[in-house]
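re: that chain from earlier
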Amino acid sequence: MSSYPAPLERLIRELCKLPGIGEKTAARLAFFMLKENADDVMALADSIGKLKQALGLCRTCFGLCEIDSRRDGELSCRVCEDPRREREKICVVEEPSDVMAVEKSLEYKGLYHVLHGTISPLDGVGPDALKIRELLERVRNAGVHEIIVATNPTVEGEATALYLSKVIKPLGIRVTRIARGLPMGGDIEYTDAVTLGKALEGRREI
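^ sequence. v structure.
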């Protein structure tokens, strides 16, 4: 039986659901919040509570974008709306967080496409579960000349890259893979900006 008061126990239980957060870390965070100023804690709770309401997916690239109450219809992110971007290039990544990581490298000026996962037969995830069909529609209709595959250097990431090359190359589009500046098994999200920038510079055709 837990020795924590019920409200504290509930917070610890919810914090434990976050990736990389065990019970001890969750308890430490909960006690930290308990000692903090009430306004700061309420501001944190409010930002968490409104996260799903304030963010949506871009209708074109499926990256994150803010929901604007003044607009009706489908959402569009800042990158897709920026006329200065190189619209003949699309960098394909696994998750929305990878877009932000690539942007920090300051080496890429094109557009993005977020797959929301990778092909993983062992987990029952096939091509149809990802945003690949939408990518093919963009390639056919948007005057794209190059697809840069920036999936993570994992088994699943490599399998996804090979599949994309197989289905896109017959359309006459150049398909490149970011260079091996990234460690095998690593995540783009946690790669430093310099390494990621060099990987983009040294991309190769697949």
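The chain has two domains: 6-49, 84-205.
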